[in-house]
Amino acid sequence: MAEPLAGLDDIDWAGLRHAYGSAEDVPGLLRALSSSDEDERNAALSELFTNIHHQGSRYSASAAAVPFLLALASDPGAPERTWPLYLAVALAIGFDESHLPSGVDITAWREEAARPRATDPADQAHRPDAWVAGLAAYDAVRTGLPTVLHLLGDQDSGVRATAAYAAGWFPEEAATALPALGALLDVEQDPNVIAHALVSGGLLDGRTLIPRLREHMAGVEPLPRWAAAIALARLDAADPPVIAELAARSATPPEEPAAFLNGDLRLYSALTLAALDEPAGDAVDAVLEGLSRTSDDASFPMAAAALKLTFRTPVLPLPPFADLTTAQQRTVRTIAELPSESWQWINLMEILGDWGLPTDRGECRRYAGIG
User: Fold this and answer.
1) In angstroms, rounded to a whole number, what is the distance separating the alpha carbons of residues 199 and 213?
2) pTM for the full predicted model
3) Number of CB atoms found within 10 A of residue 68's CB
4) How many Cα atoms sit within 13 Å of 225 on the Cβ side?
5) pLDDT at residue 257 greater than cutoff 90
6) Cα–Cα distance list, 272 to 45, 230, 316, 322, 339 (Å)
7) How far is CA 341 from the centre of its chain?
8) What is the three-class DSSP state of 17?
9) Torsion angle, CA of 134/181/108/66, rounded to 10 degrees?
10) Long-range contacts of residues 21-25, Cβ cutoff 8 Å, at least 24 apart
11) pLDDT tens across 183-205, in order?
12) How far apart are CA 166 and CA 199, in angstroms?
């Protein structure tokens, strides 16, 4: 088998950029991913997530790193293959929360990237453009998608699960990816791999998978059942059992890990319910119960989902509390009663401000009539 990092030194890394300037350190970090020393591998991975995927932003060096990450993921002799593959996916899409629950809107992304970003052509030529750099990284992984789909048959279940996760972000390749996911589901026994394949099938608008999704909805494995509900809702097939499953998981998520939303399956369930046209009252109850069980940085995305579910659009100017609907009142009270650890995040305050709600905990409690 060819050396996975062959050609690494043929790239002018010093002429490429990442979050901290020249990318001349990137080849050394990529080589460290093959180290037999786990600490060295982890340090290199952390550094790469910091510089070529800095807080979700991508740079000219990001796309250049993708082929080598995919090659490492495909190398059976590599000591760790799941994380290089996961990093490649992160370089393609940034943070997946930006695309869920609907999936990648690649048409809008390409249109946005094509718009002029500066009036001065000289500025345009030299200014880092996150949209363009992100799309370049996305297309680098898209070019390597045959490698990703091949990994659906890997012996390592972690690699298979991550490959299934990766496949769902490329709607332009759905005609190739969906049959590959279907073939995986024909033989796969690992619940975690099955769950990732089901969710990705939904993200790719795989309506031919609906009968298979119904089978998993009726199954006993918690994670595939949850994943089937997520996919069915994405495919506009959210009947009462689907909504009941999502509601239950908004309150008590599956314990098994999954790559989506960094494993926050409660949030994924709540976001999916919030995206429905007319969610049932039980869904509101479950999302608010789930929100009440959060603290710290887990609270603000759940608060955003609850506000979308019950308010739909901001009510500006903010009316008296008594004029809100019962569901809206309960949402505001639940947020107001979140622990102080949740209120230390500026993210929560920004979300509340967007919805016209008080951004100070004491003021929010007073508005909700809480002593």
Assistant:
1) 10
2) 0.92
3) 22
4) 19
5) no
6) 31, 7, 25, 28, 25
7) 24
8) strand
9) 10
10) 23/51, 23/52, 23/59, 23/60, 23/61, 23/64, 25/51
11) 999 999 999 999 999 999 999 99
12) 11
Give the closest residue to 231 by CA, choosing from 194, 188, 264: 194
Q: Is pLDDT at 233 greater than 50 in this prediction?
A: yes
| H or E element, residue 135 | helix 130-143
Alpha-carbon separation of residue 13 from 43, 87, 368 (angstroms): 20, 18, 56
Strand, coil or helix: what is 18?
strand
d(CA 200, CA 183): 13
Helix%, strand%, coil% for the chain, nearest 5? 65, 0, 30
pLDDT for position 112: 84
> For the residues of 158-181, what is the DSSP string, one character each?
HHHHHHHHHHTT-GGGHHHHHHHH
Q: For residues 146 and 110, what is the distance between their CA atoms, to the nearest angstrom?
A: 22
What secondary structure does DSSP assign to 19-37, as a single string?
Answer: TTEE-TTHHHHHHHTT-S-
Distance between CA atoms of residues 358 and 83, nearest Å: 41
282 sits in the region (left: phi over 0; alpha: psi -120 to 50; else beta) called alpha
